[in-house]
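Q: Convert this sequence to structure tokens.
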Amino acid sequence: MRIWNFWLNSLILSSQYHPPRFVELLMLTLAIAMLTISIILPDRPYIILGLSFVIGASTSILVREAISPNGHSHTALTQQRITQVIALLLLGISIYGFVDLIHTL
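A:
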């Protein structure tokens, strides 16, 4: 019971102090779940929903990183660049997945 209480308190604190990151994490977690389900049950709604979650989360990450000042230290700028590159990679893969789905219809 203590472990569940700890995780619940951590989840509540995370959602209060960093709401955009919490929503992005939730969307990416749901995307992983939907894409995993689409491998097991190859129905189109699961893969479309999973790719939509990835596109939404990566777009949110790019917007948040573009408008939020992270400081001017070398570490902060490097971390921001890595986050932006990963978000662009996820966005590109998701758009490619949608294009591939449209071609298979």
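The chain has a mean pLDDT of 88.
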